[in-house]
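Database export, one record per block. Field names are fixed; values are copied verbatim from the stored entry.
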Amino acid sequence: MEPGLQTALHRRNAFVSVVLVGANLVALNTCCSPPGLRADLTAQGEYSLSPATRNLVGNLQEPMLIRGYFSERTHPLLAPLVPTIRDTLREYQIASGGKVKVEIVDPKDNEELETEANQVYGIQPTPFRISGRYEASVVNSYFDILIRYGDQHVTLGFQDLIEVESSADGQVNVRLRNLEYDLTRSIKKSRVRLQSLDAVFARMDKPVKLTAFITLKTLPDSLKDTPQRIEKVAKDIQQGSGGKFVYEIVDPDAAGSSVTRQTLLSIYGLRPIAVSLFSPDSYYLHMALQVGTRGS
């Protein structure tokens, strides 16, 4: 992600968090989900999908997973939005004729799913400051949606899903932006990505090989999970390549390895990366792509 865009997202997240904190005291004395809210939304067609969306999910060529990551312990102004999201996702599942599988999970209840969310999909909990009557606390909460289609995926975080409005009387309204639009756009994006990748392999008349050169023992702690993430992505691509993509992870420091550090320098011009400024240790985390007999 570009630094400017990343900074803008951090600022927006910080702004939304501050607004939620301010609104939390109001939420302590008012009901966040007024009686009849679900009925009113339904009456307004909140759960009725457009013909374009129904046509999109009804014509998927492969199974699609839409998984909502929602923490049970979350900000009180976000919790009332979860039932609306859940019901809307069920409509996508029904409209797809079984091609869309919907899951609603709390990552805190499943360590394996939380690890996958963090390491494979880059989904992380968001810290929300919650102000009580006598004290304030911080809760790390998930409010995210994953859309996975083939080996492609798109994620929507809370900053993509909600908008905050302040009224003239100081009240704060937290609501979903345009859930169907955001979901359908993301589904289209994942489908286009998958079709593009399939088209690339269909046009290729030579195999592609990806080799990752990784020194497993000297990787910094912050990069320890990177080999598994590379293997996960590469395996997904391999399964959809029709045999035209293969990958290999090579450790040049491993005993008996046919590729050494000197080989990487002389053949590929690859040099190791210092673990830290004053550390004598170094590591490799490099990849080489070979198309036919040509490498890069």
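Remark 1: The chain has two domains: 3-197, 205-295.
Remark 2: The CA atoms of residues 152 and 190 lie 6 Å apart.
End of record.
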